[in-house]
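Page header: ASSEMBLY MODEL / two components / 597 residues total.
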Amino acid sequence: MQRYALNILFPVAAVVLVVLAQVGWLDRYVLTVVTFIGINCIFAVSLNVVNGYMGEFSCGHGGFMCVGAYAGSLLSVAFFTDSRLFGASLFPPESAPFLFPLVLVGASLAAALFGLIVALPSFNTRDDYLAIITIAANYIIISVVENIDAIGGPRGFSGMKRAVNAMSDVAELPWMLIWTIVGLFVCVATIRRLMTSTYGKGISAVSQNEVAAEMMGINTNRVKIMAFMVSSGLAGLSGALYAHVYGYVNAQSFNILRSTEGLVMVYLGGMGSTSGVLMAAVAFTLLVELLRFVIPWLNDLLHAASLLPASYELSQIWKWVFIPLLLILLMQFRPEGLLGNRELTQVFPRLKRWITFR
Amino acid sequence: MLRVTNLKAAYGKIEALHGISFHVEKGEIVTLIGANGAGKSTTLKALMRLPPPESAVVTAGDIEFDGVSILGVSAHNVVSDLKMTLVPEGRHIFGNLTVMENLQLAAWSRKDKGAAKDIDRIFDIFPRLAERAKQHSDTLSGGEQQMLAVGRALMTKCSVLLLDEPSMGLAPLIMYDMFRTLKKLNADGLTIVVVEQNARLALEVADRAYVLDTGEIIAEGPAGDLLQKPEIRAAYLGA
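Prediction written out in full:
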């Protein structure tokens, strides 16, 4: 029984969280932060497949999140709402709570398809070139979305809000928290299954030495493209959840800064360690939220001490000084990240008595 | 079994092989010897059809395997379909996997179910690997890593094994052990092509040899004959 302790703890924690949200003990802000932690976890863990396990360097992960966000939103609108874009709803709005997984799957597939389109030409090149190509892909995706007026262009898109409302009409539950927890579980389970499979060993082999992998009869190009598609597909899942949690999407939310946040979480957690990256995603999201309060406080403090000119206010933009600074300090003092490329159960072997899922 | 005719290969504009021809028959040990930069590794990589930038681009000539040109075959298919593989220079084992996982991974392209049995066979050939089965392979000594590299190649069920500098960085005793093992594998039917800096050792083990010099074959013949030739002794054996 002991071995299942943590396996049971996670669903219990999830249920407690949902119940707390349901009875209103979590205010809207806390609920949003908790949900966003889950989304960041999915985003970071999916990036870790390429940048960690496979040892390549993808810099445009935000682009795939963008594809997922818009694809998910459009599917929601088409499925559950009457709209100018798609006409009458495909399914009755009452079916939204049951058919919403279809939206998530569709969004993931769309993002995986874009992953394939990016991967096909770029894996004939190596190393730095993939980084450059993915940055370019990130920009292309955002520019294309911003230039399609039917989905709001630069104004953003908010039609999926009505699909979320349709779910709440059926039953008053914290739906998006529930779907985020389900999505995170599916994401982590998928990656664990993938990495412990023969295919996953192939990904490790490719990361170590492509020539040697090829000499074992491994089609290294196919392995790399598969891993890239899984990674971008799961990023699409995080995007679809993000869009529905906020009830509004704008392409600029998925620009290079979003991709950078993903990189920070992966390198903070340790490349190739799913548990490390999960911890980093939680810590990082909380840190960013903390800065929301710390920056005004720091501003007051510096003004009180007359260290800042009275005309200058420390704004939230300073977040983008502190986060890169974190990355620099990390590379200086702990380049391998929190856990290195080891899992939590390898760093603390005694944990193995409490968990079967590693 | 393998026939290379007038093979030319280039890295960009620099031609590394200027039209070499040689053949390997079933059950032979053939060695390619020569100085640094003679084109030995380039030849092996060309045989394996490794893509650039790892390998030079074949610009002329042909490589035939059992009478069929393999110029259009990709590297992983050379391994999985033609049953030919390469132990690369510097071994390149998968350090973040255990010894066992390295061996299991090598059965990747095989469709038969005999992998577990073959791992036992590898452990018979290299008992040291059995002791280290659960260890991460980057903790192995140089000699053990070379054993793993050869064992891993055998797990692909290859009938032709190419080795690039198998003696590199090994202590003399371990080096002789390795070549004795290769000889034994050859006696069991494995065709071997070995590229070696240690020409004396290679010539003692091989049936036939080719001497490469700056991208051309300058001598060939039964290994024993080459061992006796004064000019070969002077240039490559330091005698």
